[in-house]
Amino acid sequence: MRVSYVIMFLLFTFFNYQTDTSPISKIDGEYIGGFKSVNTLSGLTYNKKNPQYTIIVNSKEELISALSKAKRGDVIFLPADKTYDLTLNRRIEIPEGVTLFGERGKNGFSGALVYTNNISANPLFITKGNDIKISGLRFKGPDGQVTSTEVENQVADVVSGKKKSDLTVNRMRAYVLPNSNFLSIQHENIEIENCEIYNWSCLLYTS
What we know:
Order of helices and strands: EEEEHEEEEEEEEHHEEEE
Distance between the termini: 6 Å
Radius of gyration: 19 Å
Shape: elongated
Number of helices: 3
């Protein structure tokens, strides 16, 4: 399926404690991420009107269950003080018309943390319909290094003769095995805003 359009906002805020100004982004006159004032110690500010949530999830199990049952119009809320370890999960489906929502930027909150330590999470999430929104959350992947220890170990095994592979060492060194991916987008009108997404081999892909 060809994706005709994807709406995505990636916000990167750079701190400057030496001057009286800080970077500010606005959409329609409202502050989006960044800082509303020069007091950088106050934390992120995000003033866009938040949706009314319909489901609250406080654990990984509740999140997985909510996504499996969610229907169009549901807004799944992840509280800012919670973490969700999805290391044992992959290809988690986000249904059509569903919103994943957190409080990143409200009262200086960083947002709930959703993460995986599985280098083979490819992808962690997958869209299962149009009109999906993800807002105000942090998504941490398993790959914060320049290269993967797992890949380097496989390369060493092939070089030493301990392990055979149908992939050449050069391909393995090119970092093709394995890769982590945050989100597979296979539908239209997918919006990601006010999120921190990091430590992934691949941020997202479309098909």
